[in-house]
Amino acid sequence: MIDYQPLLQQLTELKADAWVDLIPQQLERAFDLKANGNAANWLALLEQIAVAKASVRELNSSQVKIGVATDLDEATLALLLEQLKAFHPWRKGPYDLFGIHIDTEWRSDWKWDRLEKHISPLKNRMVLDVGCGNGYHCWRMLGAGAKMVVGVDPMLLNVLQFQVIRKLYGEAPVYVIPIGLEHIPAETKAFDTVFSMGVLYHRRSPIDHLLELKDCLLPGGELVLETLVIEGKEGEMLMPEGRYAKMRNVWFLPSCETLIGWMKRCGFVNCRLVDVSTTSVEEQRTTDWMQFHSLKEFLDPDDLALTCEGLPAPKRAIIVANIN
Ligand SMILES: C[S@@+](CC[C@H](N)C(=O)[O-])C[C@H]1O[C@@H](n2cnc3c(N)ncnc32)[C@H](O)[C@@H]1O
């Protein structure tokens, strides 16, 4: 089991006592076997994964790499492959675990490559990754020199995939707490850099999301925000009437100008649009490790500039901003 003491101690030093008091309950509630039908199976599987000494731990290349095949005997390696498959679907990655290549739905490394050169160096920073999924970017943040990385994500499967990776990696100042951002107490103010990537459009109130992100930052801290946007002028946005690219839970897709306007209104300064990219079917696709439909099936087959609902196809912007 993960030892959360270093995290609690660090947050205490940063005077984030309200959250420190809550974290034990938040962990207990999320891993409640009665509340989540799959939890018991996944937890049992996690328990069964053998702890092996990894001869390689590489966090600065596209694949998060832990160990090589020869670190394990053949039977243990074959068992690990089956154990990892049981955590399907693997959406964020890629990973190379003892020579097993987890070809995830997303090339999450491409997003990292787009943003890395635009952000303040993470060396010795306390970092929060909101909506971290299985934690792929958390490992890249640690690789970039962060002092400690805390991810939050409310989906238990994501959190357990993270724990699988952490068990294989060994002790590290990286933690994922199974909660949504809205469960971090107001005024936590403990992080030098906060990332929110791929989350804002899932929120019914994007303004509250921005204010909650701001509340997590120390004075002078940096926000790295990545979200779906549309082409358009200031004030323009899209609120899909129904599904967007087959997703039910998509609320607001602002234009970049509108988004920057929201951020300024919430008190962010120095807002810089550093990247806008259309998501390609090479970046998000079905693989052996994520066998469900993916972006190709969510687009109009006759016009890849449109979703299957006839809306503008996914385009993502990265905005970096600060607070005073
Ligand atoms: C599209 S994924 C993005 C994952 C990763 N940040 C990335 O950019 O590749 C969105 C993630 O946000 C998580 N999420 C949804 N609502 C959230 C909330 N209220 N607070 C934090 N995370 C949330 C989901 O569980 C999911 O893992």
Descriptive labels:
324 residues; alpha/beta; 7-stranded mixed sheet; 4-stranded mixed sheet; binds S-adenosylmethionine
What would you note in describing this structure?
The protein has 324 residues and is of the alpha/beta class. Helix content is 31%, strand content 24%. It has ten helices and 17 strands. The strands form five sheets. A seven-stranded mixed β-sheet has the order 9-8-7-10-11-17-14, sandwiched between helices. Helix 1 packs antiparallel against helix 2 (17-30) and helix 3 (39-48) packs parallel to helix 7. It is globular, with a radius of gyration of 20 Å. The two termini are 38 Å apart. The mean pLDDT is 97.
Topology:
Blueprint: H1 5-13, H2 17-30, H3 39-48, E1 57-58, E2 64-66, H4 74-85, E3 92-93, E4 95-97, E5 100-102, E6 106-107, H5 108-116, E7 126-130, H6 136-143, E8 148-152, H7 156-169, E9 174-177, E10 191-197, H8 206-216, E11 217-228, E12 237-238, E13 253-254, H9 256-265, E14 269-278, H10 295-298, E15 299-300, E16 303-307, E17 315-322
Parallel strand pairs: 2-4, 3-6, 7-8, 7-10, 8-9, 10-11
Antiparallel strand pairs: 1-2, 4-5, 11-17, 12-13, 14-17, 15-16
